[in-house]
Amino acid sequence: MATTTVHFSVSTYDLEGSIELAILPGQEGIGHRSRRSSVVETLDGGASLSDNGPSILGSQLTLKLVVSTDQARTLRHLIETYPVIEMVTEDGFFTVAPSSLAFSSGVATFVVSILTKEAN
Q1: What separation in angstroms does the CA of 118 have from each of 9, 66, 82, 96, 104?
Q2: Global pTM?
Q3: What is the pLDDT of residue 1?
């Protein structure tokens, strides 16, 4: 299911701790999953596979968001003040860690690492 808006907030009282933004169309949904697996070479020349199944946890998500000047200020406040924020989309409720934020012509490129998925 394609996500059209995203809501960021913090768990503490903060008048500027909440914002809802539009996601630019054509982006992959947040529900995209990849397998968490690793391959390790063994001493006998073979390989060992560790497969932890499909998950979005621990992955990075790049969001292209439509922002006004005031929204950009609020988003910057959130990531400069809080190491972990909540993110709500139609794909679920997530706890994320902001990685980077850049602005260009009314568009914010926001990269977050998904730490937990609380609910659908």
Answers
A1: 14, 26, 19, 11, 32
A2: 0.70
A3: 41
